[in-house]
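Shape matters. Shown next:

___
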Amino acid sequence: MYQPVKIAPSLLSADFMRLGEEVAMIEAAGAGFVHIDVMDGHFVPNLTMGVPLLKSLKPATSLVCDVHLMIDNPLDEIPWFIEAGADLVNVHAEVLDDDGLVRAVAMIHEAGKMAAVALKPKTPVSALAPVIDQLDMALVMSVEPGFSGQSYIAGSDRKVAEAVAMARAAGNERMLIQVDGGIGEATAPLVAAAGADVLVCGNAVFKAPDPAAALQAVQAAADVARLAALAGGEA
């Protein structure tokens, strides 16, 4: 059954002096997730949000708190973010071996939360293999992680399609595909047509003159493309 594409605005691009208002705005505008980028200054060359922010945010929103751990030691810190209120925890394939990925996903599921694995642009979809049948979501990075405002890497939609095919081959029909990086009204249709379910938007929403309208425009453009692709596939 078709489900509308969901938008996950990234707080990395929000106004931190007005964070409560920003989160209320995206929720009212129809966002499905709120994306929380956690960076450690090691895995990526930037430092951002952490446990205290998530702990304050969780009681203030009904949105899915989507925590993207861009850190070297997720197995140590997953429990911190679950306790702070994460609904979905996203770990990077690049920092864990096969056993580590299995342990991370099991840890998240044992806490009753959704588990996701993220892939940097040069990491093949095959890295998901050890856990593909267990994942709730896979995140395809369409920029190098670390900073907001980067341009979409052309061809990322092909990787989305590969992830969709891999999940179906594994019998995992529930797995969502999320895309993060350079997503706006022009690029959202590309990845949505390839099978993306959740789109992370930073500057395209929070830096727009009318952020709520921008969020809705991105979602509408993605939905049109997704529906057209589905209709074409059924023809």
User: Anything to note?
Assistant: The chain has a mean pLDDT of 95. The chain has one domain: 6-234. Strands lie at 6-9, 33-39, 64-70, 88-92, 114-119, 137-141, 176-180, 198-201. The chain has eight helices and eight strands.
